[in-house]
User: Fold this.
Amino acid sequence: MTTDDVPAAITRAHHEEWARVVATLTKRFGDLDLAEESAAEAFATAVERWASAGVPPNPGAWLTTTATRKAIDRIRREHRRDDKQREARMIHDDQPDVAGPIDDDRLRLIFTCCHPALAMESRVALTLRMVGGLTVPEIARAFLVRETAMGQRITRAKTKIKAARIPYRVPSAEDLPARVGGVLAVLFLVFNEGYLATGPDPVRHDLTAEAIRLTRLIRTLLPDDGEVAGLLALMLLTEARRTARVSAAGDLVPLDEQDRGAWDAALVAEGHGLVRERLATGVAPGRYQLLAAINAVHTSARDMRDTDWSQVVALYDQLVRVDPSPVVALNRAIAVAELDGPEVALSAVDRLEVGLANYHAFHATRADLLRRLGRAREAGAAYDRAIELAGNTAEIAHLTRRRDRLG
Assistant:
């Protein structure tokens, strides 16, 4: 391997080994701060050493060994061995190391970072830092907060883990389904922020890619969990359309106007395969599996006119029973408009106003339905409200273009 290949090897090792290194050190020393800092030092050392000595045959083992030595050196320097041992007992909840249904250090780390005792924003930040290996500045930029504020958020989360004695272990078999749901919610939030980012960048591929990578990891660790497979399929089928979602001028391109030839065929095929695999089990699907199935119907159609809208509505009928939220009802109404017409759909949408009055997609949907019904003045007012509430430049450009066409 040439020296030119070393940066690629470092990047690959960071993607593949960061979570494993941090998880191994957390288990051994019981300290998230120590694990994170030592892992970062090990990667910094790798940048220097590998450039001259070459990439080792087993990068993960080299990094883990180096990070472990860094951690031991730090403990010795700080003369805090007793404190570290007490913190280790804290994070293990003063209990023997009991293996969960799946015994993997990375899974322990993920469940620790996504513990329900933490606020959702803290779970997201901590997961991206400790499991994903993103830097604090990268996470801060992604969620449009100051770097100092994001650093404090992550520090508070780690402090709470110690203070609340949150155990570093996989939940028991009976608790696992509920806790997995919390992990998936974190990953879905990360993906959605990248898919339709707030701020000037309409799509954040770094975030969608990271969410997919972490969900693949969960899928590897929990291969029989239907909702994990469903979320991965949903992400893949959504990501497949990424390059077709924004025009050269920076406008959001809705599904009915997208160039389907520009979709990533490999991601579509993989997503469809996961959906078929779950359907074959005969097990009642959960929220993510239903959302993935809806996306599978959309991505199966060669043209918008070929979409099986009756199947889409039937899937939304199932989804409403699993997740009776007004956002799901709004999306169902959009499908109903294609099946039963805009007037029927508008009636359903108007009933959702109380819960969605400050949601830009509600007003955008109303505007489109009113436009199709020829009620231009009302449609214009609805577009104005949607533009006012939208937080994404590409979406604002799309809504403005739609509104201006009314005149």
